[in-house]
Amino acid sequence: MQKINEFIESAIGKTIWNPHKRVSSEFVFEVGEKTESDRGELHFVISNCHWWLQKIDSEKRVDIVNSESEQNFIEKKISILEQKSIKQVDFDEETANTTFEFSDSLLLKVSPYGNDKLRDQWSVFTKDKVLLVKSNGTSDIQDNV
Q1: Among residues 125, 84, 71, 97, which one has the least CA distance to residue 1?
Q2: What local confidence, expressed as pLDDT, does residue 24 receive?
Q3: pLDDT score recorded for residue 56
Q4: What CA–CA distance (Å, rounded) separates 145 from 125?
Q5: What letter does residue 47 receive in the DSSP assignment?
Q6: Is 78 exposed, middle or buried, given 0-12, 13-18 or 19+ CB atoms closer than 10 A?
Q7: 35, 62, 106, 143: least surrounded by Cβ within 10 Å?
Q8: Mean pLDDT of residues grouped by 10 in the chain (145 residues)?
Q9: What angle is formed at CA 142 by the lines to CA 137 and CA 145, rounded to 5 degrees?
Q10: What pLDDT is attached to residue 116?
């Protein structure tokens, strides 16, 4: 957990831009200033997992969209993250669940698929490094080549 916290600490409070769907239910978003590669200082990829984008409304969580939603619906609804900021990220090593808390009472919950093979659930790319968070609760930092 400390490895994850240290890696994404620089994302806290920074603005999200260009959230969009890629293949299947995978989506990406940029955080911070635009770099020479046309990505943000941090480039987040959410993939190979179940995920739910939710709004906290009167202490109740309401689903906006999730990984099982129709493809067009994902594309349309994921844009709600545009210009929001990351407030906090909580990762549970035992369950491999992650909760991203954003401004405007938005949450992104990420969970492993289940009893299938080991997968990267989400990752964060910087100019030099990549953080890979895996479905078994482990994480790895590699060089971004």
Answers
A1: 97
A2: 84
A3: 94
A4: 10
A5: -
A6: buried
A7: 143
A8: 80 96 92 92 95 92 95 94 96 93 97 83 94 92 90
A9: 140
A10: 66
- Residue 96 gets the label, from left (phi > 0), alpha (psi -120 to 50) or beta, of left
Q: In sequence order, what are the residues at sequence separation of 6 or more whose Cβ sits closer than 8 angstroms to the Cβ of residue 102?
A: 16, 81, 84, 85, 86, 87, 108
Pairing of strands 106-111, 50-57: antiparallel
CA–chain centroid gap for 8, Å, is 11
Tokens linked to 27:
């989506």
CB atoms under 10 Å from CB of 108, counted, come to 24
How many residues belong to the chain? 145
Predicted pLDDT of residue 117: 73
